[in-house]
């Protein structure tokens, strides 16, 4: 179920696929949304100081393609508060009460070569569990999310998988025990020099805005006492999807939207979260060209080690010709 690029980022020496796990039979209702430009605009507005780009124009677009990665602020979880766990995470996704802690482990996203999620249009999302992997005291759960755009797509049961505009696969890791505060994290440093990079310090304001835009109530992103006393982390954690979007935006600024005649579009993007990113610490996001169609991207911790590691595959955007 994993493509080659995803396997390269998530391989592990001890991998037990639990085929009979009850999560495979869990059913998720389709999520409908109207792709208003406002959430995408607010995401760009929130990220612009950290990407060192001008704020987006006040005039909202009335049409066009949704920018890569901005689907993260659409199709939010449709859960009442009663279906949230004590830590604010979704009970729908949890494997069981014994799994007391969860983290974002990574994922991938692929974009259809001709279909796009369109602004000012209706959209629908279908989700399912595709992989469950047991690694000792950790349980890795992969969710596949397929998204379509257009009013004719409103009958979710009739949709064909290969017609989805975006296919996102996200991996959550669940733990049976609280974080071991005495554990020493291994620092793996990049061996290559980036072709482009920028530094930024995530603030509590940024985390709050991203939580609001994604309808994410997980307390590790906004409750310092819970994060430190219950989860054992030194401070608030940046969202895994936030680091994913930042790397996509870095690629967009330096490769996709450079004003050059030849235009590129993202075909596939795979990433793995290797170390947490904390509020009020200085991070560096980097990109390196491997070939015209292949880029390596990563985020570095203050110690210079990997926080997130990613690969992007591009294709020529013929829609611009």
TrEMBL record:
InterPro entries: HotDog_dom_sf, Mitochondrial_HTD2. Gene3D superfamilies: Hotdog Thioesterase (3.10.129.10). SUPFAM superfamilies: Thioesterase/thiol ester dehydrase-isomerase. It comes from the Eukaryota. This is Hydroxyacyl-thioester dehydratase type 2, mitochondrial. It comes from Discina gigas.
